[in-house]
Amino acid sequence: MPETDPVEISVAAALAAARDDLPGHMQAGRETEILLGHAAGVSRSQLLAYPEHLLTIEQFDVFQNILRRRRNGEPIAYLTGCREFWSLPLKVSPATLIPRPETESLVEQTLIRLPCGDPLEILDLGTGCGAIALAIAGERDHCQVTGSDVSEDALRVARENQDRLALQNVGWVQGSWYEAVADRKFDLIVSNPPYVATGDPHLGQGDLPHEPVLALASGEDGLDAIREIIEGAASHLKRPGWLLLEHGFDQQKTVIELLIAASFDKVCGHQDLAGIPRVVSARLSTNRDTDND
Question: Which domain holds residue 68?
């Protein structure tokens, strides 16, 4: 750790005091270590390797400030500005949804439908910080991925993440769902859209009150965005083309019914790593009589 002017408090003492200060539900031990490492400009492992190290006044002040914000419920990912997803260190901000581990199941199912070597075009709707688009682009460098989002602030974060990861096969467009790709068709469309019901009490719990509501809530039953994506998919998918959607834990049956009604075939539900229904995949039928072209 760098040698700078210390304040008379060690890493170990600062952590001990902070653990007593944070509510237990905030996983105080691990979180305080992450926050202090961020304030000190070192990794959590480096921090724990030098418990006797004395903090500078500036480091301690930064730590106290972000600790106070954490006590007020601000998500740790926004405090540090970073969240790992698919082993990628991604920048996040209050303009973007915080990537969740369960969304990695959506990436896994997408990659299964993208054979290595085929130069396919993929659209990620509601890309946010670019987590899904960048994960796919990194695994399939022969494919071209387009990330779309209505928020320019979110796309700014996605571009920064692309620059940091030095991925060339990703592009970004601004618009609500298909607006920015009106005349384009893709081999696969993937989306983690908002799917929480507008009046769901969970929106007031945990990290959710601090995240952009447009990325979380979607109508009385939470399915408005999913319906819109399904309805517009036929005009933007090549045949046969795949559509993959993340959804809420109790929505899989309804999403499957919506896809079947929209003339998709090979409709299949998938679970996340916790065994919760989380993703539906479907192929646009090649035998459909009508087309929205």
Answer: 6-72
